[in-house]
């Protein structure tokens, strides 16, 4: 029990640190892009952020819905990314936490901030920057649109994730394979190595 709690605490702390770093990066990049740009480009950036959140939410759900069986068959046929897809499914809880909670929540927060900047830009264009009832109307409409796209997109994404989980996770496996093979970025732990490590611990 203590080992499970310790492992869970360690993972939670690492996720919190990753979230902090990614949120800062997302915020800085989005503010740099939106600073001094027109409202149309700003609206496009907001849509990209929303789409990113929807996409990662879909991938997280697909990981929890997918089965290892088809990937085992693919791995035996040496399909590229199949072994990494197996690791994703076996670490579905961690993968889903990163996709749904980290990227998904960050996208939601950043899209709200970006929407506010777009509203300010629109008010400057329409009303010369003077605060009025128009600003609240535009803000309400834009916020409602972003919320509708986010919720509607995630609802559609859930259906796609469940029905096409194998294809989505195989794609994710190929992306992870490229990151690890070409860029040498370790994404997920290798179950075989973990079992060997646990075996060594249990012998002592």
Automatic annotation (TrEMBL):
What keywords would UniProt list here?
Membrane, Transmembrane, Transmembrane helix
Question: Which residue ranges does UniProt annotate as crossing the membrane?
Answer: 12-33, 39-68
- Asked whether the keyword Transmembrane helix is assigned, the reply is yes
Q: What is this protein called?
A: CNNM transmembrane domain-containing protein
